[in-house]
Amino acid sequence: MEYRFALIGYPIKHSLSPWIHQQFLKKAELDGEYFINEITPDDSFEEQINKLKKMNINGFNVTVPYKQKIISFLDEIDQTANVMGAVNTVANQNGKWIGYNTDGIGFLHSLKNRFPELHEDKSSRILIVGSGGAARGIFYALDAAGFKFIDIANRTIEKANVIKKLGSSTGNVLSLSEAEQHIGNYDVIIQTTNVGMKPLVDNTIINVNKVPPETVVSDIVYQPIKTKFLQQAEEAGAAIHFGHSMLLYQAQYSFEIWTNIKVAMNGLDRELQLILEGR
Ligand code: ATR
């Protein structure tokens, strides 16, 4: 059987997903392709989705700006996608189009793979910085995995409050300056906003130059691979966790939904890092 997957979004010409899924197909020894199906703002979204559905594909990924818009074109969405209000993976299951969201769980798996001891210790004190879609997914996955203490800091406090209510973990909602003041209180700090992304690489949402060396500091931005946020943390002696790893693990979970195969990651993390460093 030949697998066929696609990606919809705009703009996506430079997406890394085709490369990642081609590596997965190779590792799983499956024949297939993963193609880019860009939908521009001038296209009719409905027409494009109907065309895609008729192409006899096994599934597709959905990225910005269509993660919400796609929902009304699906037959069902799973519980996580429902709570997120966003879908990043669609599977064709016996002719029904089912939506999932693998972003949060992808982050959780990437963290677990790099810091297994952290994942064992559910009393780790966690700070999530930001309250957009990515923060929501990450908070929900960490909370569901049983982490007991999660603070959320955001420029707009109300958005952090909404996310906090999705889970049962303890922890507080903080302003960005409060988080910076108490930056030494955490075992794990996760930066989930786009602050620091190319081209504005000198920006950091809060300073982490005073984190204790035993802290794990993560940034979901992967262009540049080592953001200023991560540079500061590294200079303070903290362990850093790169954003491209979330990209890989959310893709791994999408691929598993489509094929029932969980591919081994060995080497891919490093290969993707080299590609990004060359950009
Ligand atoms: P995504 O869905 O990709 O996570 P989003 O929903 O647009 O993106 O959320 C972006 C996040 O980055 C939000 O937490 C946003 O803060 P607000 O909720 O206050 O808008 C945060 N953000 C973006 N630019 C920022 C900036 N310059 N300073 C502080 N926070 C910023």
From TrEMBL:
Functional description taken from the UniProt entry: Involved in the biosynthesis of the chorismate, which leads to the biosynthesis of aromatic amino acids. Catalyzes the reversible NADPH linked reduction of 3-dehydroshikimate (DHSA) to yield shikimate (SA).
Assembly information from the UniProt record: Homodimer.
Domain SDH C-terminal: 243-263
Catalytic activity: shikimate + NADP(+) = 3-dehydroshikimate + NADPH + H(+)
Ligand binding (shikimate): S15, L16, S17, T63, N88, D103, Y222, Q250
Cited SUPFAM superfamilies: Aminoacid dehydrogenase-like, N-terminal domain, NAD(P)-binding Rossmann-fold domains
Enzymatic class: oxidoreductase
Identification of the protein by name: Shikimate dehydrogenase (NADP(+))
Top-level lineage group: Bacteria
HAMAP family the UniProt entry points to: Shikimate_DH_AroE
